[in-house]
């Protein structure tokens, strides 16, 4: 199974991401938008692992959620990987209770290390992927200004109340995401 651990974006926040993507697709015609039902904030990508790890991964989520109450993050800015000037991926950065996101992420990393699963050591930036490109996009000054304007509106906070373990299943060139475990925060 192909696993990842994430904070899912509630469906009530989908309209604001739809609005961002609608405006984005008018700015960049070759964009591949992330399906709204797949929008999430990834905490750890585990890749292909044995499905008998699900109980242990669920325990790691339970430990990560201990004594952390539900919280909110708010869309704040747009950026890209590897950078905003030549992105393969565009994402929305968040502000708000980032300290809780980072604490959960560190606990998950510690849990994964304890069962000898590889941990991504790159700098973690809490983000929500909204679009991808088949080829690297060249962002000129005009497009950069357009992207800034796209995020220059007030956004509703996103309430985070659980951590989820997902399975990513290939399906005709795309992937569907199945929730394998959900652990509520504050338990």
TrEMBL record:
It is an enzyme of class 3 (hydrolase). It holds the Pfam family 2_5_RNA_ligase2. GO terms for molecular function: 2',3'-cyclic-nucleotide 3'-phosphodiesterase activity; ligase activity; RNA 2',3'-cyclic 3'-phosphodiesterase activity. Keywords: Hydrolase, Ligase. A motif (HXTX 1) lies at residues 40-43. The keyword Hydrolase applies. The active site is at residues 40, 127. The keyword Repeat does not apply. Gene3D superfamilies: Cyclic phosphodiesterase (3.90.1140.10). A motif (HXTX 2) lies at residues 127-130. It comes from the Bacteria. Its EC number is 3.1.4.58. It catalyses: a 3'-end 2',3'-cyclophospho-ribonucleotide-RNA + H2O = a 3'-end 2'-phospho-ribonucleotide-RNA + H(+). Hydrolyzes RNA 2',3'-cyclic phosphodiester to an RNA 2'-phosphomonoester. Belongs to the 2H phosphoesterase superfamily. ThpR family. This is RNA 2',3'-cyclic phosphodiesterase.
């Amino acid at each position: 199974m192909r696993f990842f651990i994430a904070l899912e974006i509630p469906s009530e926040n989908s309209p604001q991401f739809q609005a961002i993507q609608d405006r984005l697709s008018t700015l960049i015609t070759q964009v591949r938008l992330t399906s709204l039902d797949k929008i999430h904030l990834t905490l750890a990508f585990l890749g292909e692992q044995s499905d008998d790890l699900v109980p242990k991964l669920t325990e790691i989520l339970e430990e990560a959620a201990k004594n952390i109450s539900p919280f909110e993050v708010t869309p704040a800015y747009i950026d890209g990987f590897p950078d905003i000037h030549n992105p393969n991926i565009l994402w929305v950065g968040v502000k708000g209770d980032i300290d809780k996101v980072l604490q959960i992420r560190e606990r998950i990393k510690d849990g994964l290390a304890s069962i000898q699963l590889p941990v991504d050591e790159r700098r973690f930036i809490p983000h929500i992927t909204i679009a991808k490109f088949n080829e690297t996009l060249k962002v000129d000054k005009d497009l950069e200004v357009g992207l800034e304007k796209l995020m220059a509106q007030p956004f509703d906070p996103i309430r985070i109340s659980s951590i989820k373990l997902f399975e990513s299943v290939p399906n005709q060139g795309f992937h569907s995401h199945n929730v394998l475990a959900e652990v509520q925060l504050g338990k």
